[in-house]
């Protein structure tokens, strides 16, 4: 169930990322890398140490986007919660 929720959140993140015009290239690249890592976890692969590190980067990214991109921040927060339920 949590993995399906991750898939839905990834789709929402993709959608929001596509419509976020005021996002700099570095931030966009960070989010795209995080999405790839989260997709690996959602597909049932055993999380690598890099994927575990990515979950720590989610919190940093969520805080970074909180004021300028609140919807992105909210989605990232939901992803963090879901990863926590998976023990990651």
Helices and strands, in N-to-C order? Answer: HHHH
Count of helical regions: 4
The general outline is globular
Radius of gyration, in Å, reads 12 Å
Enumerate the spans where pLDDT stays under 50 for 5 or more consecutive residues.
Answer: none
Average pLDDT figure: 82
Total beta strands: 0
Number of domains: 1
Biggest sheet details: none
Residue fraction in strands: under 5%
Q: What separation lies between the terminal Cα atoms?
A: 15 Å
* Helix vs. strand class: mainly alpha
What proportion of the residues is helical, as a percent range? Answer: over 70%
Task: Give an overview of the whole structure.
- The protein is mostly helical and 88 residues long.
- The chain has one domain (2-85).
- 78% of the residues lie in helices and 0% in strands.
- It has helices spanning 2-19, 25-42, 49-65, 70-85.
- The protein is globular, with a radius of gyration of 12 Å.
SSE layout and pairings?
Blueprint (H helix, E strand, L loop, with lengths): L1 H18 L5 H18 L6 H17 L4 H16 L3
Helix pairs in contact: 1-2, 1-4, 2-3, 3-4
Task: Put the structure in a nutshell.
Helices cover 78% and strands 0% of the residues.
Observed structural traits:
single chain, 88 residues, mainly alpha, 4 helices, 78% helix, globular
């Amino acid at each position: 169930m949590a993995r399906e929720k991750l898939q839905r959140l990834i789709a929402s993140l993709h959608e929001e990322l596509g419509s976020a015009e005021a996002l700099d290239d570095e931030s966009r690249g960070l989010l795209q890398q995080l999405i790839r890592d989260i997709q690996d976890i959602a597909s049932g692969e055993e999380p690598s140490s890099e994927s575990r590190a990515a979950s720590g980067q989610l919190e940093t990214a969520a805080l970074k986007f909180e004021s300028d991109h609140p919807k992105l921040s909210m989605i990232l927060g939901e992803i963090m919660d879901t990863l926590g339920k998976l023990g990651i």
